[in-house]
Amino acid sequence: MKHLREELWFKTPNRRDYLNITEKVEQLVEHSGVKNGLCLVNAMHITASVYINDAESGLIQDYDDWLEKLAPHEPISHYRHNRTGEDNGDAHLKRQIMGRQVVVAITDGELDFGPWEQIYYAEFDGKRKKRVLVKIIGE
Ligand code: ZN
After folding, report:
1. I need a labelling partner for 28 at 20 to 30 A (CA). Which of 43, 46, 89, 133 fits?
2. Which structural domain, as residue segments, surrounds residue 56?
3. Can you give the CATH number for the domain in which 19 is found?
4. Ion ligand 1 residues within 5 Å by Cβ
């Protein structure tokens, strides 16, 4: 069995950002030499997500508005978690609803997506270095 483990590092300019990382993952699939297998992509932090959806700017803004309604960043004092001295109580909740990881099948050396599917890294507590794990296994 072939396998590849790689970390992708990000430092987003804003507290919340949504990055399309599909091309980076595709490059790793190619580099792995795996023709048929599975590709796991997961955020390694509890205030960031990896998810799959459409690459469309209106949708990203809709997600952001929706998440801010569900778990607004402010007032910071609203979150018990922030009594620890942190200010990212909202980011933990946003991560939970947007998920930790995705798994995509690899078929004939390519990510076997449905129509419009793209892989996104969602940052909810940015402006610092954080990483995503990519693990590829197969033949
Ligand atoms: Zn925290």
Report:
1. 46
2. 2-138
3. 2.60.120.460
4. 86, 88
